[in-house]
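Sanity check. The docking grid for iron/sulfur cluster depends on where the pocket ends up, so I'm generating a full predicted complex first rather than guessing from homology. Inputs follow.
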Amino acid sequence: MSKTASTNTATILEIVRMSTEDGPGIRTTVFFKGCTLNCAWCHNPESISIHPQLQWVGSRCIGCKTCLSVCRENALTLSEAGMQINRACCTGCGECAEECPGTALELMGKNWLMDDLVVEVIKDRAYFGTSGGGVTISGGEPTMQAGFASMFLKSLRERGLHTALDTCGQCSRGALEKVLPYAAMVLFDIKLIDPGDHKKFTGHDNRRIMDNLLFVADYIRSHVYPSEMWIRTPIIPGATATSENISGIGQFIASHLGGVVSRWELCAFNNLCRDKYRRLDQPWAFADENLISKSFIDELTETAKHSGANPDIIFATGATRLETLETQEKQESQQEVGGEI
Ligand code: SF4
Ligand code: SF4
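Predicted complex below; grid placement will be based on this.
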């Protein structure tokens, strides 16, 4: 990609409005496409490739075969088994999705021009002001498109908006140096403290990530902007959800990130992305995994609070198994009382 293209256009997966999970207040989160890690549990598999990807939603397909005649690459085959997308042939042009009358074909990922994206997120300005929110860039890994990410945040900053960078930390120092000056805060993932486990579950050990984490902490200490960092740890059964891992991360925060980290979130695993894997024709090792029980999350939260990290900044987020059962029971009881809901 040319330098000009990298600062004026970016491949964006999705813009999510009214988010309360990606920083303080009500936020608009811009998900960049493309990731430098390949986490076994990834909840957004469609964000890993930087290229646009086609998906087919069978329940919307009316079987008209318009897409087959539109596709110049002969990448599509429709049979009783459903739509087969030959991903080796598909160029991601999106023409089939544009012509599909049932909206069964969707192209995930779109190239945005800088000015258009700025105008798009500024529409939500009224929500930011009253809630203390703003705009978060997430992914994927937004620093993969650092030139664009940097200029995008700068533009929002010049308009007085609060900005946040959500990063996995697996990126070049140069990319971080481009983006940090325009981020009011940083959300940084620490998934696994053990380098071997990190490599096993994400494809890379965590040496570069931890180096970058220390760099960001020093940067915050020596600059006005960004002013704070949140640490986020996904709680994944069989991978990150061990007392040794949580304890180790807590000790690292206590020893190296004092005065910089204002919140450490333990984010419960969810399995709502099963269908995403199916639509992308990808297997998922966690497809049969249940939500984590509330008692287990409580146990890990207690471990975190006794790890040496400031207990006042530690929070568990996300749905747990008990909450799900309670919700189901509530819905069943409402159905019994009032029929369909
Ligand atoms: S154009 Fe859309 S609705 Fe028609 S066969 Fe293709 S996917 Fe199905
Ligand atoms: S995105 Fe383009 S190349 Fe891919 S199946 Fe659709 S029309 Fe064919």
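Relevant for the grid: Residues 321-338 form the longest helix (18 residues).
Also worth noting: Residues 61-67, 78, 100-102, 104-105 surround iron/sulfur cluster (ligand 1) (CB under 6 Å).
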